[in-house]
Amino acid sequence: MTATEDHAGGPGDMLPGLRAVVDDSRAKAAATRTRRAAEAQPAAVDPVARVLVDVQLAHLDRPFDYTVPASMAESAVPGARVKVRFAGQDVDGFVVARAAASEHPGRLAPLRRVVSAEPVLTPEVAALVAAVAERYAGSRSDVLRLAVPPRHATTERQPSPPAPQLAADPPAAGEAWSAHEHAATFLTHLASGGAPRAVWNPPPGADWPLLVAHAAALTVAGGRGVLVCVPDGRDVERVSAALDSVLGPDHHVALTADSGPAQRYRQFLRVSRGAARVVVGTRSAAFAPVRDLGLVVIWDDGDDLHAEPRAPYPHSREVLLLRAEQQGTAALVGGFARSCEADYLLRTGWARPLVASRDHVRASVSVAVVPGEDRAIATRVPSAVRDLVRSALEQGPVLVQTPRHGYVASLACERCRTPARCRVCAGPLLLAGPASPPHCRWCGHQELGWACSECGHRGLRAPVLGDARTAEELGRMFPSTTLRTSSGDHVRSSVADRPEIVVATPGAEPVAEGGYAGVVLLDTWLTLARADLRTDEEALRRWLGAAGLVRPGGRVIAVGDPAHPALQALVRWDPAGFADRENDQRLATHLPPAVRLATVTGEPGAVDDALTLLAPPDAAEVLGPVPVEGAGSGEVRLVVRVPRALGASLSHALGELQRVRSARKLDAVRVQVDPPTL
């Protein structure tokens, strides 16, 4: 190598540069290790975070301790969402508390990261989640999915404007509630910061959303929050409109499942941050983090929409009652009907009745029952019904409630009355319209040449008619009258105050401006034909719900057996007496709500294992297992019931059963405490 080559790029010139690069890399690595070591140091104050991990396994349903790194000391606040290492993978969780030391010896794993420093799980809601999980023998992770909506990061970064100041109007509230006995005492106690608890049955024609809004205004004016749970979105809209009229705009939020992720999370944050003090929503709103909660309200608690269809199957009424007990709030359990559970609250003295005077009820509505004509003839609308519809149309709209949706919901042999069945799968036949051939409800097969399997006759009759066929019949009777239907996927929220006939199925009745001039309840025998523990109670609830939409002084007529107890209660407008008699019968037969009842459902082997592992209270009765009707999968059901005083012990025993089964990885069973139906 020449001197020129050595001077141009020899090894002697390269070594200083390489040393500089290596030294720089080492310095950076050392700085990174120093920074990471500093970040890994525990927080100076409360270095332990108790985290409720989102894990489905029942035996892991408890908080776990993690170290809070110093870099997360300010953001890992109670209620924040975090990521933690659990069972070899990163999982979500909520910080439920910070502590100075752990109760468990050994080195704790650190938090992986804080997903959001927004405290979305308040201490009150965390306690409620634990109580609901214990009450229904479920896990807190399942309840948390109902209580806290999924995060929407963009929405979380936006501020929540506070609600304007509110000035209540006690005289207006007193005037609105004047028809109710003892309402003045209830409202005064509510406005003064007390915790009155009432079972409320308004008179027919009452604007119940307006009454709820006035009670909410008095509560908010006293510096407390309000939570209102209703069955469906249409009721949310009605209550929201009433709250806007009484409280003014921007004073409340609506929480429903129909809202998009961003809108639902935005409304949730307004409540969590204290920017809104009044919440109205469907069943999941029972967990809303309302600050300084002073009043919980549930409307129509007998509606099955209040029962959560996902594990652990809580009922919004029970969630609100647990919340009222934990937070010492006022409670209002309302509805035109009175559920047996609501009546039981009166029996135990937990609540007091809040009802209208009998004179006011008699002046508000006239109810009659007429026997149904022989269903063998073409018409099922008696002359008394036709007369009522004709006279009521002169004053306004008329509501006709029919139990079934569709055209002809059931077919039978015209001669021998044998139900018409499909030749392919033995399913029931029906008609979808006046020009449609009979087809199977189960498999859809068209029976073009049907003949009765018993007598060979080819003629068909329709023992059960739907709302479409009912509207067709009424259209022939009143050819110059507008007819509307509300059922299925086409539910109307309201109708105008003009002469027209509205045919609706139960729960789909639209509200008429000013109320209906007349209400007709058809086919009451069909509503009473269900084989269920709550058949009569549910039938009366549906009838009273429709009849409650009548205007003051309107008329209601039902077609059915005048001697039936449920129809007699409708005629007298006596939901209280009916619920009291129902509870007397259930007390004698050891049925809810006089007892606490639970079911265990699953494959026969799994249920048998559960029966072996279950350690119920000494006074428990174990019934079954028996096959589940209509399941089609060979499932069986076990029923366990105990005196109501031992309800907590039964829930605890079922929770222990779930934890043992989870730890041993046994086949799953479905546990339901106080199921709405058997």
Write the topology of this structure.
Layout: H1 3-9, H2 11-40, E1 48-53, E2 63-67, E3 81-86, E4 89-99, E5 113-116, H3 123-135, H4 140-147, H5 153-156, H6 170-176, H7 183-191, E6 197-201, H8 208-221, E7 225-229, H9 233-247, E8 252-255, H10 261-272, E9 278-281, E10 293-299, H11 316-327, E11 330-334, H12 340-347, E12 352-355, H13 358-364, E13 365-370, H14 383-392, E14 398-401, E15 408-413, E16 429-430, E17 439-440, E18 460-465, H15 467-477, E19 483-486, E20 494-495, E21 501-504, E22 511-512, E23 516-521, H16 524-527, H17 535-547, E24 550-559, H18 565-572, H19 575-589, E25 595-602, H20 604-613, E26 621-627, E27 636-643, H21 647-664, E28 670-673
Parallel strand pairs: 6-11, 6-12, 7-9, 7-10, 8-9, 10-11, 13-24, 14-21, 14-23, 19-21, 20-22, 23-24
Antiparallel strand pairs: 1-2, 1-4, 3-4, 3-5, 15-18, 16-17, 25-27, 25-28, 26-27
3D architecture notes:
The structure is a single chain. The protein is α/β, with parallel strands linked by helices. The protein has five domains: 13-40; 43-119, GIY-YIG endonuclease (3-Layer(aba) Sandwich), CATH 3.40.1440; 170-356, P-loop containing nucleotide triphosphate hydrolases (Rossmann fold); 365-406 and 466-588, Rossmann fold (3-Layer(aba) Sandwich), CATH 3.40.50; 594-673, Alpha-Beta Plaits (2-Layer Sandwich). It is 35% helix and 22% strand. It has 21 helices and 28 strands. The strands form seven sheets. Strands 8-9-7-10-11-6-12 form a seven-stranded parallel sheet, with helices on both faces. Helix 3 packs across helix 4 (140-147), helix 8 packs across helix 9 and helix 17 packs parallel to helix 18 (565-572). The radius of gyration is 32 Å and the shape is globular. 46% of the residues are buried. Residues 1-9 have low confidence and may be disordered.
